[in-house]
Amino acid sequence: MLVLWQMLVFPGALFLISGSLLIAWLDRKIIAKLQGRVGPPWYQPLADMLKLLSKEDIMTVDTDALMATLLPLLAVASTLAAGMYIPVGNRAVMSFEGDLIIVVFLLAIPTLGYFLAGWASGGVYGVLGGNRSLLQYFSYEVPLLIGLSAPALYSGSWQILALMDAQRAYRWHLFSLPVGFFVALIGLIGKLKRVPFDIPHAKTEIGAGPLTDYSGRKLALWKLTIMLQTLVGLNLLVAVYMGGADRMWGAWGYLIYGIKIMTLLAGLAAVQALYARLRIDQMAQLGWRALVPLGLAQMLIALWISGG
Amino acid sequence: MTTVRLPIGPQHPLLKEPLSLQIDVAGEQISEATVRIGYVHRGIEELTRCRSYVQNVHLIERICGICSHIHSTTYCQAVEALLGIEIPPRAAALRVLLCELERIHSHLLWIGVLGEAIGFTTIFMYAWRDRELVLDIMERLSGGRVSHAANIIGGVRVDLGAEEIALIEQTLDTLETRLSLYRDLMVHDRPFRLRTQGIGRLSLETVQALGIVGPTARATGVDVDMRRDAPYAGYGGLSFRVIVGSEGDVWSRADVRQQEIAQSLSLCRQAIRALPEGDLAVRAPARVPEGEVVTRTEAPRGELIYYVRSDGSDRPARLKIRTPTLPALMSLAGLLRGVQAADLPVVIAGFDLCIACADR
User: Fold this and answer.
1) Domain covering B3-359, topology
2) pTM of the full predicted structure?
């Protein structure tokens, strides 16, 4: 029973979904404030979601119906599954040695699904957007993985809970491995396809990219995936680099945990407000010429310090 | 590599006005581009022949939703030349003021559109917010934000009181401070420069062969500006600098426009500080003597030419408009060939195309 409660309610599906809606609202609100706008009311992401869910589900004649239906489900499911492994507060639904790798793998599935969704939609914008998202995947995934493995090598464990334990008493990996954090954060922005890496859905070039020909429930699920990815990704960074929840504070730990996530989110929002979109070649250059060498250097330093 | 045909328009998030581009993309590179126009053709030139000269002022103003005032100014100038009447100095100064205000908001609008094209939405929001300040003045003066109906044949219809002058002075000061943001953007912002420098570069030969005008030509190094070369309205007595760039790329065009806004602010100040007293308009007869005339003005996007022929009745026998957008459109397909698909919005938005003007 407890496992079922944990999976479906807290810290599982229901918590993750409502949390991601809240995060999506905060994100939009912060960006709006930075841009001198008013921004949406708190229930806007929920309202958007309900509206999309109730809308007619249209598929073009070129759409591969099976793929188009299955892919968003798969994307939501794998993102939720990734969320189960990441501790919220100090509890995770499941945890074992090596779950960091599982999480990275599970978080990669929506990206591949996104590419396939573009391909399955049969539209020009979808295909181009899909290609771009795959190209982008090769540019950010390696830095992200390197950025996440540095703390694992440093602390000698590939279990997220163990990594959190290693950071107790404010020995955050953020302080010991700042470059790794930076690389992982940029990798995460790439994964979330946010400015300046919103290349696969650059609206002034290819409309909504892979999602151009989607509507109704399918689009709602894709939007949900992206919101969930934001929460899960930030959660992961907080757990691996910012000490996760501080157990010594008891219930206050959750609040502090929330504050950490908000801080990162505010950073992402500021980046969104301050940058222009890069071109795909500029992004690949950034990924391979700057982030990968930096990340590798950080990995070596982590190995050297930990005496491995 | 397979080639995909990418339709941009007539309806597309990039375009503010209907224009159709068929883009052949191989991978991420554009191999061929075709431009189709005519989606907002309203037959205005023909319509002018069915209306009287006075009615036409209001029709002409509806050619464009951004540079409406310069169209009616040019038209009125043409008719006034045919009639052989001179507008009062106060009217001339007010026309200058409105033209320059219009240039400021048009340039700000374009900087915003360019920002949005490269995914820089903050610039879009800021530029359009600042543009509102100018539209507020317009609304205060004439009652209309974009269609001012400020010109009549023989002069203008709007006047400034002490209160309006104070409002304009205050807004100009605000804009002056806001302008530093755009200056910083052009000079210091690295992502902005990465996306605009060296993109959509026009050569001097292309500019001269196609007759490209306005800020686009000036960014290539062509020193041309009707306000200085053929002064009209009250421009004769005002001092300003014609901004000339050298690179010819989108960045250079943005930089030229940004500096032109500063010049326009100064022109507005000069116009209201030395505002002559006197009548706003002289009476113009309804019938226009036989003859033909060509008038040129500097619209926000470049040289605007009106040709009017009269057969002695109260309606024009022929009216021909040459807008600055058309030559720019002609260079578009050539410029798009070979560029990255991701630079497509920058190249297109980089022209400040006004499709409504071009199609009429």
Assistant:
1) Cytochrome-c3 Hydrogenase; chain B (1.10.645)
2) 0.85
